[in-house]
What we know:
- The protein is α+β, with helices and mostly antiparallel strands.
- The protein is built from six helices and ten strands.
- It has a two-stranded antiparallel sheet with strand order 1-3. It has a two-stranded antiparallel sheet with strand order 2-4. A two-stranded antiparallel ribbon has the order 5-8.
- A hairpin with a 2-residue loop joins strand 6 and strand 7.
Amino acid sequence: IQQWDIGLVKREQEKKKEKNRRKKTKNNQSVKKSVNQSCSDKSDTICAAPGISDLCYSQIGDICPVTCGKCDTAMESLPSTTNETTFGSCYKPTIKNGVVTNDQDMLAHNEVLRITCDSGYQLSGQQVTCLIQDTYTNSYMDSRLLPECLAISSETLLGNGTDYAGTRSTAANGVECGNWNADVLSGLYMNDYDAGRLLVGNHNFCRNPGGEHPVPWCLSGNPATGYYCFEYPGCDTCSAEDTDNTECDMETARCEYSKFSSRQTVDWYWENCKKTCCQKAACI
């Protein structure tokens, strides 16, 4: 009788397990169906734009999930049904032009990463803590923003500032600059299909990536907008005479760079009234 009772109990346990397995499979199918039904591009115009796939890492991924191939992997991104939290120790990362000064070879979970930069370099970026293995996180909850040791040079502006590596972090109109990598990676700067070229560092110092603009600039706001950090190019550009004397008046000449929207007008004055603009810039 005792052996029969044990067998009955085992059979009941197996039935219960099978019932739970079928219930779980049915729930997953229901969730998958719901995900597939809701997964569609929100804007045909935006999602069909040339090069849009290069911006799938940003908010574009949510606007164009089909184009970005996110629908097929939707189930993989569903929240876990378990209560387990993934964390553990971290390896020490390699910091270019700096050294990690934590005592142990492995950092404990939530331990702050401590970095000392080499002479002539400055630490930039938010403080990060160990999450697991080679992953560190910050207040942005973004593991891509590891602190950096930046080479800092003179604050003197030469030419259009292509090589400017100073620490100015405020636009000419007083706007505080945003973090380049944080703004681009989070999709705040959506006005440029090639925004990836603006990943110039984990800092908010004014720069002129690729020398595309007349002076160094920076990003600020949400959505991010470009602002010029210097009103005038470097004085080493002042070597020409005015070509259109009727418009080259010290009182009315618009030689100051500020917003991207006014660049075309200011460019005209620097091309046709360079001597006047250089006088306004106190270069001559």
